[in-house]
Amino acid sequence: MSQNETPTLELVGINKSFGAVHVLHDVDLAVHPGQVTALVGDNGAGKSTLIKCIAGIHPVDSGAIMFEGRQVHISSPKDAASHGIEIVYQDLSLADNLDITQNMFLGRERTKGIILDEASMEQAARETLTKLSVRTVKSVRQQVASLSGGQRQTVAIAKAVLWESKVVILDEPTAALGVAQTRQVLDLVRRLAETGHGVILISHNMNDVFEVADRITTLYLGRVAADVARSDVTYSQVVELITTGRSGDLGLAPATAAESI
User: For the chain, does the N or the C end have fewer beta carbons within 10 angstroms?
Assistant: First the structure.
């Protein structure tokens, strides 16, 4: 995929402060269809704030959010969803007492007159899992309480895909998962990109990042230290960018990095 293609989601010069604390400084970020962009940074780098700005939870102070080449104003999570932006948070927001189908349609149930259209919802849930080549779930009527951590993450991602999303943001999707479950989720992240979605992967796990990301965007104390193709950087360079804002010739200018501390 060419980088010249219009990004599905693009942030241009985003600034955000909370009182006297300037959290995001002129942040640029581009998310292309069919690509996984890893957003990395230490705790306090501004990752959560940036995602909440995209989600419409926090209004931006200045800068522009572009969607498919047009400037948009996102003032609520409903606005974000209407543009095709879905976020899978770390807590997954799944209801243990409901089955997979009920969770995938929670709050957006289909009805026939005054009754739920169970057959239609079940079919759509099954088709979405099939589209993502999910084979770890036996039945879409399985209760979420009975699922493993990896299966829960799979359901949460499938739920995001079900709503015709164009950008899926994944917040630490492999945190607290075992090796086999992590493998399942990383495979699913790649399949998301292969089905044309733009994916933002937030992760502290550099092995995961280097395995599935096409690009890596590093935040350092609210500034973009680097936005590079994964193939153009090494593991140690990314760690250095995360911890100091610079790695050799890459990253923030020395004066800017020092100012940020």
Answer: C
Residue 219 DSSP one-character state:
E
Neighbours of 224 (CB within 10 A): 25
Run of H or E residues at 27? strand 21-31
Nearest to 198, CA basis, from 36, 70, 45:
36
By the 10 Å C-beta count (0-12 exposed, 13-18 middle, 19+ buried), 135 is classed as exposed
| 229/226 Cα distance (integer angstroms) | 10
- 5: helix, coil or strand? coil
Give the residue from 2, 3, 25, 14 showing the smallest Cα distance to 66.
14
Amino acid 90: pLDDT: 84
pTM of the model: 0.90
- Specify which residues 115 forms β-bridges with: 112
Q: What are phi and psi of 169, to 5 degrees?
A: -105, 125
Q: Alpha helices, DSSP H only, in the chain?
A: 47-54, 77-82, 100-104, 118-131, 149-162, 179-194, 206-212, 235-244, 254-260
Q: Which residues partner with 226 through β-bridges?
A: 218
N-term to C-term CA, the chain = 37
Q: Which domain holds residue 60?
A: 9-95+164-260
Q: Which two tokens stand for residue 141?
A: 């009527």
64 falls within a domain: yes
pLDDT, averaged per 10 consecutive residues of the chain (261 residues), comes to: 76 97 97 97 95 96 96 94 92 90 93 94 94 89 93 92 92 89 92 94 95 97 96 96 94 72 56
Cα–Cα distance for residue pair 37/2, rounded to 1 Å: 14
- 142 in any annotated domain: no
Within a domain: 154: no
Candidates 38, 24, 33, 7; CA nearest to 170 is 38
